[in-house]
Structure formats: structure tokens, C-alpha cells
Amino acid sequence: MSLKIKQDHARFKNIVRGRIKQNLKKFIQKGELLGKRGGETVTIPLPTIDIPHFRYGHKQQGGVGQGEGEVGSSLGPGQVEPGKGQAGEGEGEHVLEVEVSLEELAAILGEELELPRIQPKGRDRVVATRTRYTGVNTTGPESLRHFKRTYKQALRRQIASGTYDARAPVIVPTHEDRRYRSWKLQPLPENNAVIIYMMDVSGSMGDEQKEIVRIESFWIDTWLRSQYKGLECRYIIHDAVAREVDRETFFHTRESGGTMISSAYKLCQEMIDADYSPSAWNIYPFHFSDGDNWSADDTRLCLEILRDRMLPAVNLFCYGQVESPYGSGQFIKDLREGFDGQENLSLSEIADKEAVYGSIKEFLGKGK
Fold it and tell me: Which residues does 309 contact at the CB level (< 8 Å), separation at least 6?
């Protein structure tokens, strides 16, 4: 019975996984997962899943082909003409909600978008340890007493001393018989990564544009967390000046005023220099903007920072240009012109929520 339950559970998980893959693009576009995240799982709303089963008909209905009838007559019981039925009392079909781990969700995303596994750069950085029980010792805390080994030692001593009676096998361990588990701390090397999100929050970036960034960042986080054991996220907002904020502020701040993109790039580079050595960290700056910048001079400064300082240090720099009725869209053209063929630079134009699916592929499809 237990084996049957496990088989049915595995079958149901495969059905759910297939349904998630089938509807993944819709989930990404609508952002249906973002408000339902808890710990290491997300709750996904799926249409009711019907597993095939037998359905028995009503009794005393006669055999097949029996009775009078006309061509087109219903063979089933209780046919009601459209619109002539009465109000029902039963419940309608409900949406089934299933919990999926973020690790499983990342695997589905990788399969569906054919994302390559990332090969981390740099050396492993030891950030944690774990306890491994490696042997037995004669001293230790009582909480780690090895009862089986203690009993064996007492039995061995009593047999050797001639005090063991097979007819009354009473084993009484002494203090010298006690044995304890011994342990050692083993370092856990982890490839660390940091995502530095930057977003233009000037007046031309409205709520719709911020929602697109929020949806895309969820999937970026999900994929990169599946590739790295240690992942940090930092957030920078900018208009004419840049400042670091927390996640909540990042997605809900609305400013007015001009845009100076170089302010964000300078702050991002300062973070890298201060906290994230390229030899130990895998670094992923993501910048989202509507493409407006203060001036051509500031754009040239941005290109200089990227070329001389940031791109040599990071795994991948991603720029996503979110379409806005108020933005000129010029900045992505300047980046294409200045960095044609640059391997660790990824550019994406995001017209609306439907474009998020393709944008994730453009950003993460290089496997950097």
C-alpha cells in the first residue's frame, strides 16, 4: 500500500510539473507567483487537474440501441435545453493550488527556456561549516554517549575478567566502559554570487514599468539561486542621483526629476570595490531603465565606467530597457554601438509583460 501511494504521489507530481511547464509563459507574464512566496516554496494556481477514472451510468436505462428514438436524440439521461435549467446548489470548479519548491521551479524554468548551467568563476569561498561524526572516543558529553559501543565494551570487560554469567547475563557498564561519539568541523566551500539591481525611478518610470522589473527580478533570483549556494542581492535606485535601498523601497519608490545613469554605475562600482572581490565573487549587475539619460556626456561616462572598470570585473552585466511612453529609448542604442560583440554584456528591450519571458532568455541564455 505504501509503495502504491508513493507511485500515485510521484505520478501526480509529474502531472503538476507538466502543467506548470505548459503554463509557464502565462505565469511569468501575469506574475501570479510573486505574492505567494513563502520560505523555499511558492504556491502556484493551476486549473483543476482531472485524473482519468471510470464513470458509471444510471441503472435501469436499457441496453445499447434499445427503445425508440430519432436521429440526433440524446442517449444520456436528463438532457436540458440551454438556458432552461434551474439554479444549482453545488459548487463550481475551483482552481487547485500546489506548492512547488524554488529549486524545482528553477529546474522547470531552465528546461523550458533551455538555459545553460552557469560555470562559476573564481575560487570557492568558505562561508560555513558542518559537524561530521568521525569516530569514537573515551571522553565526551553525555548527550553524545554511544550506547552500543559502551555496552560492547562492558561485555568485553566482563568476559575477560570472568564475571560474565551466561545464565544471568547482566551487563553493568562502569565509567571506564563509556564511549562517546567524536566529531570534527568540516568547512563547506560555497560559490558566492551577488546581484546588484539598479533601476531608474524618475518620473518617466511608472508603476507598470516597475511591475515588469519586479516580475523579471523574481525569475532572475530563482534561477541564480539554483546555481549558487550563497547569493546576495543589493538594490540601487537613481534619478539624477543614486542611493542604495532595501527591496521593498526598490519596487515602490516613485521620484520626479531628471535621469543621470552614471550615478548608479558609480555607486555599483563602489559596492564591488568595497565588498565583492572579483576573485571570490560572481557578480551580476542588472540595470533597468526607459532609455532616457541626462546628456550625451553622461552616456559617454557610463560607457567609460563599463568598459574600463565594471565589465572586466563581472560575470555578466545586463541592461533591460522597459518601454515607456515618456522615454526616448536611446541608451540601449548607445550600448549596442559602444559594445558590439561584448561577451559579458546582455541587452534586452522589454515592451510589456509578455516580453519578460523572452527577456529572461536573453539575459540568462549565455550561461555566464
Answer: 269
On whether residue 55 sits in a domain, the answer given is: no
Strand-pairing partners, residue 137, are 180
319 domain-assigned: yes
State residue 93's pLDDT score. 44
Instruction: Compute the distance between CA of residue 164 and CA of residue 171 in angstroms, rounded to an integer.
Output: 8
pTM attached to this predicted model = 0.64
Quick check: 106 and 226 in contact, CB under 8 A? yes
The CA–CA distances, whole Å, from 309 to 268, 270, 298, 328 equal 11, 10, 16, 27
Amino acid identity, position 317: F
The span from the CA of 10 to the CA of 50, in Å, is: 16
Q: Which domain holds residue 153?
A: 126-187
Strand partners, 39: none
CA-CA-CA-CA torsion for 232, 238, 243, 247, nearest 10 degrees? -40
pLDDT in tens, 206-236: 788 888 888 888 888 888 888 887 788 999 9
Contacts of 338 (CB under 8 A, 6+ apart): 303, 306, 307
Same-domain check for residues 171 and 220: no
